[in-house]
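REQUEST ID: PR-0412
SUBMITTED BY: lab tech R.K.
PRIORITY: routine
TASK: structure prediction, single protein chain
INPUT:
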Amino acid sequence: MPVDLAATADGWTLLLLAFVVGTCIGSFLNVCIYRLPADESVIHPGSRCPHCGKAIAWYDNVPLFSWMWLRARCRACHASIPVRYPLVEAAAGVLALLALVTFGATPMALVAFVFTAALLLITFVDFDHQFIPDEISLPGIVVGLAASFLTGAPTPREAVLGALVGGGALWLVAWSYMRATGVEGMGLGDVKLLAMIGAFLGWRAIPAVLIVASLTGSAVGLVLIVIQRGPAARRAIRTLGPTALVPFLRRASRRTELPFGPYLALGALMALYVPGLTLPWTP
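STATUS: complete
OUTPUT:
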């Protein structure tokens, strides 16, 4: 149940602190998003411009404000700084606020923020590179299982079942598709990610996560097909209805790799903050 922290001055201070800390974590997530796919250390060397390699001074590395102050340009080489950087920082700040407002100043809020920050990192890496780093998902499974002993929600037993059910369900789908078509339709990164989600949320959340991910992923895929195929797809819809997109979808699926991780992350976020999405017999 959401906690009314805004009712007192101390509550407002705590909310502001949570947002500031969240944006700082978001700044570190930007480093991870850039370096993990390149197999670079996320600790050493310090922040530097990816274009000219010059080290970034601390006053040019303040979350949100530095990007605006520098007008989205590197101070040294004037190369453009993508808007993704402040967006990730702001998103991490909002996730910290959401965890605090929902769970209060409790261990559960910390666990929720760590979990959703990991999902944010995975989302951007998967969008950019179509893979999910094991450096996040595999330790994430361990952290999720350990967190269940701290919070009790889910219980350790439910967390273990969640990791097994989550990873097992997607592995079975991937294996079946491979056997039926001879083509790899889903990477093991998605399998490990759903195992991590199950460890944090428990097995009862897995159906909701898969349903949300499948529906949103399919919707985005159909929109992309209509945009890419242009007039031909739109004429087919007007003449025969939405089912006319099936041939386009089949052809596109053989050529286009759509990352599934971001949609699993969205499903996990909804399952965490909208408990009614989990199985109806959840206590």
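NOTES: Residues 9-35 form the longest helix (27 residues).
REVIEWED BY: pending
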